[in-house]
Specification:
Elements lengths: L1 E8 L5 E7 L1 H6 L5 E5 L7 E4 L2 E3 L4 E7 L3 H7 L6 E2 L1 E6 L10 E7 L2 H14 L3 E8 L8 H6 L3 E6 L6 E2 L2 H11 L4 E5 L2 H13 L4 E4 L15 E4 L2 E4 H4 L2 E3 L5 H9 L20
Parallel strand pairs: 9-10, 9-13, 10-11, 11-12, 13-14
Antiparallel strand pairs: 1-2, 1-7, 2-6, 3-4, 3-8, 5-6, 14-17, 15-16
Length: 278
C-alpha cells in the first residue's frame, strides 16, 4: 500500500492534494512525468502527473479535481489510508536547459503539472515569467509556490475576481509584443493550450504543451492515448506527454476527448477519467 502522509483541500472544494509515500518512484521521478494510481482491486487506472517530488522524504504529491467516481473515492481517503498500486514514473521528462526568458502558462489545475517544470526552468538559470489562469480566484492553486520559483507572476481570472480580467492569452500576447521570449510552456485545458500555441506560432516562439488524451495502460500497449503530431501518430504515454505545441492536432485531440464524458477542466494534471455512474 502507498500510504497518504498529507492531505489538503485546495482553493476550491473539489480540488485535493495527496502527498504519498513512494520512495522508489520519488527516487527516479523527473519534472513532466506521471504515475498511474489504483485505489483498490476494483479501481480504475487513473494517470496523474506529479506536482511535486521529495526525494529525501521519498514522497510524491498529486493534485486532482473531483470529476467522477474514482476521484471522488480519492477525496474520501484520509492520512494513513493509501492506494493499492502506483506505477511510475512514466512518460518522457521535460527537457530542461537555460534558454533565456521562459513564460510558463498554467490553466486551472494544469498548474499542478507546471509547478515542477517551472521550478526546474528557474533552477537552470532562466528568467521565468509565470501566468496563471482560472475561472475565478476560488480555483487558483499553488499561487505561493509558483511565486517562489518565478521571477514574475501574473494572474488572470475569467470573472476578474483576481488579477487581470481576461484570458491568459491576452497577458501572453502583451509579453510577446514587448519582450524577447525564448520559450513558452503551456499546460491546462486543451482549448487554452491550442490558442496559446496558435499565438506563439505567430511570433515563432518554441512552445511546449502537455497533452491529456484517454489513457489506459500507460506503456504504449493499448494505443488509447494516440495523438497526431506533425501529421504522425504518437502515443502520449511513451512519446509524451509533452509535445511541440505548434505540431499538435488539437482539434483531433478534442474530438477524441469528446467521445467520452471528460470534463475539460480536468485537463489539469490528469490525462483522463471517465465520468462513471454511481
Amino acid at each position: 500500500m502507498y500510504k497518504i502522509i498529507r492531505k489538503e483541500k485546495m482553493a476550491h472544494d473539489s480540488i485535493y492534494l495527496n502527498e504519498i509515500e513512494a520512495p522508489q518512484i520519488a527516487k527516479k521521478a523527473k519534472p513532466g512525468q506521471f504515475v498511474i494510481l489504483i485505489i483498490d482491486e476494483f479501481g480504475e487506472r487513473v494517470p496523474l502527473t506529479m506536482a511535486e517530488v521529495n526525494k529525501e522524504k521519498g514522497t510524491i504529491t498529486i493534485i486532482y479535481m473531483i470529476v467522477g467516481k474514482s476521484t471522488r473515492s480519492y477525496s474520501k481517503l484520509e492520512v494513513g489510508d493509501g492506494y493499492k498500486d502506483i506505477v511510475g514514473p512514466l512518460g518522457e521528462p521535460t527537457h530542461i536547459e537555460k534558454v533565456g526568458t521562459v513564460v510558463c502558462v498554467g490553466g486551472g489545475t494544469g498548474t499542478a503539472v507546471l509547478h515542477p517544470i517551472t521550478q526546474a526552468m528557474h533552477k537552470a538559470g532562466n528568467h521565468v515569467i509565470t501566468i496563471l489562469g482560472a475561472r475565478s480566484k476560488d480555483y487558483l492553486i499553488l499561487e505561493k509556490q509558483m511565486q517562489k520559483v518565478s521571477n514574475e507572476l501574473k494572474i488572470c481570472t475569467d470573472d476578474g475576481s483576481k488579477g487581470r480580467h481576461g484570458f491568459v492569452t491576452e497577458e501572453l500576447k502583451e509579453l510577446l509584443e514587448n519582450k524577447k521570449i525564448d520559450q513558452v510552456v503551456a499546460i491546462g485545458p486543451v482549448p487554452m493550450m491550442k490558442f496559446v500555441s496558435l499565438l506563439t506560432k505567430e511570433y515563432n516562439v518554441p512552445t511546449l504543451v502537455s497533452l491529456n488524451p484517454i489513457m489506459i495502460d500507460g506503456t504504449g500497449m493499448c494505443g488509447g492515448c494516440r495523438v497526431t503530431i506533425a501529421g504522425k501518430t504518437k502515443f502520449a504515454c511513451v512519446d509524451g506527454p509533452e509535445f511541440n505545441g505548434h505540431e499538435v492536432d488539437f482539434d483531433g485531440l478534442m474530438r477524441r476527448l469528446g467521445a467520452y464524458k471528460v470534463e475539460e477542466e480536468h485537463s489539469e494534471n490528469c490525462m483522463f477519467e471517465l465520468e462513471e455512474s454511481e
